[in-house]
Amino acid sequence: MSPHDASAPAPAPTATAATPEPFLSARDLTKEYVTRGGRGLRPPVRRFLAVDGVSLDVPTGQTLSIVGESGSGKSTTARIIAHLLDPTSGTFALKGEDMTHAKGAALREFRRQVQVVFQDPASSLNPRHTVEQIISAPLRYQGITTPGGHGQLVRDLLDRVGLNPDHAQRYPAQFSGGQCQRIGIARALAVSPGLIVCDEAVSALDVTVQARVIALLRDLQRERGLSYVFIAHDLAVVRQLSDRVAVMSSGKVVEEGTRDDVFERPQHPYTRSLLDAVPRIDPEWDRRRQAARAAAGLDTTAIETAGGSAA
């Protein structure tokens, strides 16, 4: 089998004693795009499945990371479960209630419960609005009033994400990329969601700022019991933040499991190829992973890594 053969999708996840009940679940999601090109009266039609039969569970209070190369379908999947994109087929449910075709009050409540932090922190913020206007926008959309007004809540949120509350009247252009991402996180927190979808939320940040934002996300999860769907291609970041990991290739989930199972005992050739492509400087890490593979009866063919050891 080729390392990139994704013809055998992972089975749909099932709840176990060690895994909390899902806050959000998706079953058999597909997203098909149709393109028309060529010449003449009947141009050819091409169909492309960006998401192909994806089933996922997001455990309550935990982080599910979805990883894969560019074009794997991970961001499209994230947009579907955030209700930003309609699936071609399949369903997704919030705390057991089907929300695939939610309208009106049900959709409004879904948008309160599920918030998104986007990849590019600057472009996801309206440059014409002050920070206070940006963070309070979800409150206005939901019709939520707070004691002391929105201004006090905005100041409290800015303080919680590590920004100066006195800067609430500034504009996005007056902040760094990392600070803009913190503003985006504060905006997501404003309506007290249960789930935040982080679509490549730290990939545009430098390593130092990235580490601080990850630490903030972990702290907020402990404090508020948040669930995260974390979309990323950086496996080092995924390892730090995840409870469970789903690996996508060509629109399918080819492997899904706990963080340690996926990183230490990968079952699918595509997952192994992703891990083997990661530069490492810790030879001991490679030795431990090779021993774990051998114990599981998996292929232990030596592959030279950046650390100079066999993976």
From TrEMBL:
Pfam families recorded: ABC_tran (PF00005), oligo_HPY (PF08352)
Alphabetical list of PROSITE patterns matching this protein: ABC_TRANSPORTER_1, ABC_TRANSPORTER_2
Keyword terms, alphabetized: ATP-binding, Nucleotide-binding, Transport
GO biological process: peptide transport; transmembrane transport
SUPFAM superfamilies in UniProt: P-loop containing nucleoside triphosphate hydrolases
Ranges in a coiled coil: none
GO MF: ATP binding; ATP hydrolysis activity
Family: Belongs to the ABC transporter superfamily.
Protein name: ABC transporter ATP-binding protein
